[in-house]
Write a structure and sequence with these properties.
253 residues; 5-stranded mixed sheet; 5 helices; globular; single chain; alpha+beta; 12% strand
């Protein structure tokens, strides 16, 4: 009778299972590799969501630019832009950011009040497309918080000081969010878009409701200054409003 020992002598392999120690080593290695790769995969997924959202805003901005020539160069009103721009969109899917789609939300973006809105805090908005000065630095669309209105205006002027607008003041206009890697996407009147990272921790706390006093979160806040720059209107000074010229030695003094 031939035995297992004879089979080994004839060159056939003798199979045996892994020991418990070997299995534990393999499992440990797999766990270490997963712990190293998961943060990178999560970061890549979040970045992909942010890029997809920025692409949405690019499509919205193109639709916004197409609206003006069809309406005597007038800008689309911020309070009704979601309805007014639908005819210029290939798909209404661009109205929703993937990170904001909960099955109930219909719009993830706000349109700057500076673009065709009403006068707020002493700032007269642009009403026609050709009037926009420095279009590459003037914001059009931005990510907005779910409770935020379609019209975006996060500023309030208090005794000649710009502050973040509190949620309790004209609810919905503020609309700030940090849904993309502690920042948000925004587009500009020349058609380009960008992602900004909130630099001041107070801005994130205001968004999260951890600071109730907007004045506390506004003083020397670089994020607030950035919003002032991209939202307020800068026009060339009126020479008639500058007063009489200063007389110098060169002009006959």
């Amino acid at each position: 009778m031939r035995t297992g020992c004879h089979r080994r002598e004839t060159g056939q392999l003798h199979r045996r299972g892994f020991t418990l120690a070997e299995l534990l080593v393999v499992v440990s290695i797999i766990c270490v590799l997963m712990s190293l790769s998961l943060p990178a995969l999560t970061q890549a997924r979040r970045q992909a969501e942010q890029v997809h959202c920025l692409a949405n805003q690019h499509q919205l901005t193109l639709a916004w630019l197409l609206y003006a020539p069809d309406h005597d160069d007038k800008l689309c009103p911020p309070d009704s832009w979601t309805a007014d721009l639908k005819r210029y969109l290939q798909s209404e899917d661009v109205l929703l950011c993937k990170t904001d789609d909960d099955g109930k939300q219909t719009n993830s973006y706000g349109l700057s009040n500076t673009m065709g809105g009403v006068e707020r805090d002493g700032v007269t908005p642009f009403l026609r497309l050709h009037q926009i000065s420095h279009p590459g630095s003037k914001m059009v669309f931005i990510d907005k918080e779910r409770r935020g209105s379609d019209c975006f205006w996060p500023l309030v002027l208090d005794d000649d000081r710009w502050l973040w607008r509190p949620w309790s003041l004209l609810l919905g206009l503020q609309g700030l969010t940090n849904r993309h890697r502690n920042g948000c996407n925004l587009s500009f009147a020349d058609g380009h878009g960008d992602w900004i990272h909130w630099k001041d921790d107070r801005t994130r706390k205001l968004i999260q409701g951890r600071i109730a006093d907007s004045e506390t979160g506004s003083k020397d806040n670089p994020d607030l200054q950035y919003m002032i720059d991209v939202l307020t209107v800068h026009r060339a000074p009126d020479p008639n409003a500058l007063g009489p010229p200063i007389r110098t030695a060169e002009n006959g003094d």
